Amino acid sequence: MMILDGTIVNVALPAIQESLGLSSSNLGWVVNAYLIPFGGLLLLSGRLGDLFGRKGVFLTGVTIFTAASLACGLASNTATLLTARFAQGAGAAIASSVTLGMVVTMYTDSRQRAKAIGVYSFVQSAGGTLGLLFGGVLAQTIGWHWIFLVNLPIGILTVIAASRVLRTDTATRDDRAVDGFGAALITLSMMAGVYAIAETSRYGFGSIRTTGVGLMAIGLLVCFVIRQAKVRDPLLPFRMFAIRNVSGALATHTLMIAGIFSFQFLAVLYMQNVLGFDQVRTGLGVVPVSVLIGAMSLLVAPRLIARFTGRVVLLVALASIAAGLATLSRISAAGTYLTDVFPATLLLGVGFGLAMPALAGLAMSAATPQDSGLASGMFNTVQQIGSSLGLAILSTLAASHTDALRARGATSVAALTGGYQLAFGVAACFVVVAWIVAATVIRTPRVSPVAP
C-alpha cells in the first residue's frame, strides 16, 4: 500500500491539477511531498525499530499513514493536500523501514529467507506499477479523492492483522541514543536538493534561486556526514559502507531506481499526452510490467540466485532494464503502444523482477539481528533518494527540452515526445552506470547473499 501510494497519483495528476488549480511546476510536488519524507526518515525509523521493537514502530507508521490518507482524500486545496502527503510519507517511512528487517530476523533458514525476500521484492517493485493501474481506474470511475480514501479499510485491516500475527520483539540496544538531529539534516538536505532541481525548469540552472538552494542542500549533507562521523551513536554508521558488497548494492540500487522510476512517471505522460490514452488504458498499459515482476521475483529470481549468485543475476537484470529504457528513448510522436511501449515493458519487467531480490539479498548480507532495522532502513532510503532525485532530474530535463523544441517551432506533440526521448535516454545512462558499479564493486560472496 505504501509503495503503491508513491505512484498511484501519477495517473490522476491531470485530474488533481484541474480540480485544485495546480500549476505545472507545482504538480510534481504532489509526488515529491510524499517521496521526500519517505526517503529522509527511513534511517531514523529503522533505528527506532532496533531500539524500541519493530512491531510497535510498524503499527505506529501504519496508523499515521492511514490517518494522513484520510486527510489527502478530504483535501480541498493545494496546501492541505501537500501537507497531508508529507504526513503520508512520514508514516510510510516509519512502517516500511522495519519490514525487511522483520523478514530477515523471522526467517533463519536460507531457502525460506530467499523465498521471503522474493515476496518482499515483489511487493516493493510491483507496488509501483500496480499503483498506475489502480490509480487510473479509481480516478476515472469515482474521482481522484478515492486513490487516497481506499487506503482507509486496508490500513485498518493491516493494523488489526499485524497486532495479532506479528510477534512482539523487544529493544536490542537500550543504551543507544536516537540521532533525531541527524535525521532532520538529511531530510532537509533531500528536500532542498529536489526543490533546486525541480525549479531549474522555471528559473534555469544558473539562477541565484536554484544555485542558492542547491548549495544549501550540499551544506546540509556535509553537516550530516560530519555529524555521523563524530556522534557517539550515528544514525548512519560508516562501518556499514566498509562492506564492499553492501556499499556496491546500495550505490547500484540508487542509480537503478533513479533510471527506472522515470518509466512510472514519463511513460504515463507519453501514453496520455501523445498516444491519447485515458486513465484506465494507461493503467492497463503497465500491467505487463507488474505481471513479469511478480513472475520473476517470486518464481525465477530465488532459483537463479541460488544457482548463479546474486551478482550474476543482477548484471543480467540491469542490462535488461537499460535496454528497456533505451527502447523508450526511441518513441515517436506517431507511434503506437505495441511498437513503442510494449517491448520496453517486457524488458523492464524481467529486469526489475530479477534485480530487486538480488539487491535486497546483497544489501542485507551483513545484517545482524541488532542491525537489521538499520540495514532495512538503508536499503529503503536509497530507493527513495533515487526515485526522488531521478524524478526531479528527468522530469526537469523533459520539460526544459520540450520548451526548447516548442521555441524552435515544433508542434506540441512533437515537443513533448522529444522531451520524453531525452529523459528516457538519460535514464538508460543511469542504469548503465549502475551496471558498471555492480560489475566493478560487487564480488561473488562465498556464501549465498541471502544466507543467515
From TrEMBL:
Membrane topology label: Multi-pass membrane protein
Taxonomic superkingdom: Bacteria
Pfam families with a match to the protein in the record: MFS_1
InterPro entries noted in UniProt: MFS, MFS_dom, MFS_trans_sf
GO CC, one annotated term: plasma membrane
Domain Major facilitator superfamily (MFS) profile: 1-446
Key words of the record: Cell membrane, Membrane, Transmembrane, Transmembrane helix, Transport
Gene3D superfamilies, per the entry: MFS general substrate transporter like domains (1.20.1250.20), Multidrug resistance protein D (1.20.1720.10)
Stored PROSITE patterns: MFS
Protein name: MFS transporter
Species whose genome carries this gene: Nocardia panacis
